[in-house]
Design goal:
The protein is an alpha/beta fold. It has 9 helices and 13 strands. Bound molecules: acetyl coenzyme *A (ACO).
Length: 324
């Protein structure tokens, strides 16, 4: 037995911000953003919170799977932008849904978070501890961005995507995960550290907010070398030839990264669906929102062979093969 995705859901804030709107307050242009990233617009939270988006996505995933909250064994929430440090997002979801039987906790693996949540759920189910799990990637990253820094704020959007997974005869076939902590400072956000009676904080400490900081080119280089390698490894582990793969569903960071990975794998670009044009980079939500779109539109068919691959701050990376 293995673990299969039986239902999906997603939630996106109402407010759309296109590149032209960014031009009104940033020294940037629609042409620059589209050429360098492929992004045309993103959605940003106004009244929505990480929790409200996550709960909506989870409710849809349960409905799609024909399950009730009371049936859920485990909730795993992947996020780097929760509403509270504690209680964790997964416990907030558990409370909102009334999923009284479920254990619940968060995973912080940045943009690889949803993939790691899926892998963790599959490992629990495989060892017999749980029969099912509700997994979600949810982010309001726009609250962590410096909106005067054109090299980062143009990239990200908010949203949540969820999946209900359970024990089945087919589904997840193989998983690999990795981390390269030595490259961690390529993409980081330092926690705010106010003064205490015993400690005076350093340069960054004490500020009201610390923003996301990124060395774009380091992240770019990491992604285009590590993701193809992860995918080759997972194909080998699964025993699939790349020609058998129907879709490579990758973290939606940047169209040029995805195109470069397709080229390195020598696979056609139409096997690499993208929604970043419309939504930007939604970190841990990007893969499950894309899965939900493809599921609900009928693009995914039962039996399709899929490779998922994510990479993110940490740096974290991983790849998973599954039969839809
Ligand atoms: N508009 C106009 N000009 C800009 C902008 C902007 N929004 N941002 C940067 N520039 C300028 C720079 O100031 C620089 O100007 P200069 O030559 O006068 O110094 C010039 O454009 C080139 O800047 P680079 O940083 O070299 O541009 P690059 O081609 O590397 O593109 C980008 C930047 C898009 C961030 C790219 O490095 C990238 O995509 N990296 C991957 C990062 C990523 O996707 N991160 C997402 C988060 S990570 C994750 O999801 C795991």
């Amino acid at each position: 037995m293995t673990t299969r995705i039986l239902g999906t859901g997603s939630a996106i804030p109402d407010r759309v911000v296109n590149n032209q709107e960014l031009e009104t307050f940033l020294d940037t242009s629609d042409t620059w953003i589209q050429e360098r990233t492929g992004i045309q617009s993103r959605h940003t939270a106004t009244t929505e919170t990480t929790t409200s988006l996550a709960v909506k996505a989870c409710m849809q995933a349960l409905e799609d799977a024909g399950k009730t909250p009371e049936e859920v064994d485990l909730i795993l929430a992947a996020t780097v932008s929760p509403d509270y440090t504690f209680p964790c997002l997964a416990c907030e979801i558990q409370s909102a849904l009334g999923a009284k039987q479920a254990a619940a906790y968060d995973i912080n693996a940045a943009c690889a978070g949803f993939l790691f949540a899926l892998d963790s759920a599959a490992a629990y189910i495989q060892c017999g501890l749980y029969k099912n799990a509700l997994i979600v990637g949810a982010e309001v990253l726009t609250k962590l961005l410096n909106w005067e820094d054109r090299s980062t704020c143009i990239l990200f959007g908010d949203g949540a995507g969820a999946a209900f997974v359970a024990e089945e005869k087919t589904g997840v076939l193989a998983m690999m995960q990795g981390a390269n902590g030595q490259k961690g400072m390529a993409l980081y956000r330092q926690e705010t550290a106010p003064d205490t009676p015993f400690r005076k904080t350093g340069i960054r400490g004490g500020a009201a907010v610390n923003y996301l900081e990124m060395s774009g080119q380091d992240v770019f280089r990491f992604a285009i070398s590590q993701v193809p390698e992860s995918i080759q490894q997972i194909l080998e582990k699964t025993g699939w030839d790349k020609k058998e793969v129907d879709y490579y569903i990758l973290h939606q960071a940047n169209a040029r990264i995805i195109q470069s990975i397709a080229k390195r794998l020598d696979e056609p670009e139409d096997k690499f669906p993208m929604n970043l044009t419309q939504f930007g980079n939604m970190s841990s939500a990007s893969i499950p929102v894309l899965l939900d779109e493809m599921n609900k539109s009928g693009r995914l068919k039962r039996g399709d062979k899929i490779v998922l691959s994510g990479f993110g701050a940490g740096m974290t990376y991983g790849a998973t093969t599954l039969v839809w």
